[in-house]
Amino acid sequence: MRNPLLQGALLLLLAEACFAGIGALVKYSSGMATEAQVVFFRNAFALILMLPFLYSRGWSLLKTQRWYLHAFRALTGLVSMYCFFYVLGQLPLAQAMAVLLLTPFIIPVIARIWLKERPSQLTLIAIGLGFIGVLLALPTPAPGMTMVLLVALAAATLVAVTKTTIRYMSSTEPAVRTVFYFSLLTAVFSVIPLPFYWQPLPNEAWLAFIGMGILAAIGQLAMTRAYALAPASSIGMWTYSSVIFAGLFGYLFWQEPVTMSWLAGVLVIFYAGYITTRQRLL
Fold it and tell me: Where exactly are the transmembrane stretches of this chain (predicted)?
């Protein structure tokens, strides 16, 4: 029998692997391009890659009565993108991805207020365990990093709003439509500052942008489908998996150290995610 919660969790794992890959490419291209260029081309290439898929499904799929929600999601997603890309330029990859692990703590609060979803007692326990895991995984912040951490908190909050908006729209908006409008609107909005922050780009930057677009399209489709299948407050915990992928990429490409504290935190985080999903499988 198909289990929506399990399917949602697996799709969210795929999405987080893609997003960690985008983070790695952003970090790689940060010395070759401005933040405005990275944000615009990440969204533009994702939009281009969505067009053939949308054509195969039919353009009628774009008809919607909830354009205001698409615009709201695009704006919150775009601002969170700028915030997060700034944080990526200031912190090691694994640490930058780890600060976004605050998102699952915020999702149940927003979902409770907005969607009236009441998390179970076991979910609340899992959230507490996840918080402990994040504390273990995060290294001690260096002096003078207060502003970076505040920007990271803003990014995590906006990501939580974006993901809860997906859940709210899922009753009428299929994944392809949601992702297409997100890519379209963020590309349009992010082109505005582009002329003011333009600089020549090497070939390596263009390859990185194409890679971001591919991963963004796959990740957005997987994430949107995940939150359409299962409540945000139940599967949001699997957002923690991004720290695994970020740690792996950081170690492989930048030789960023993997500490025992980080490993312990990751194990606690995954156990928290496991018991959240397990409660619905029993």
Answer: 36-55, 67-87, 93-115, 122-139, 145-166, 178-199, 205-223, 235-254, 260-277
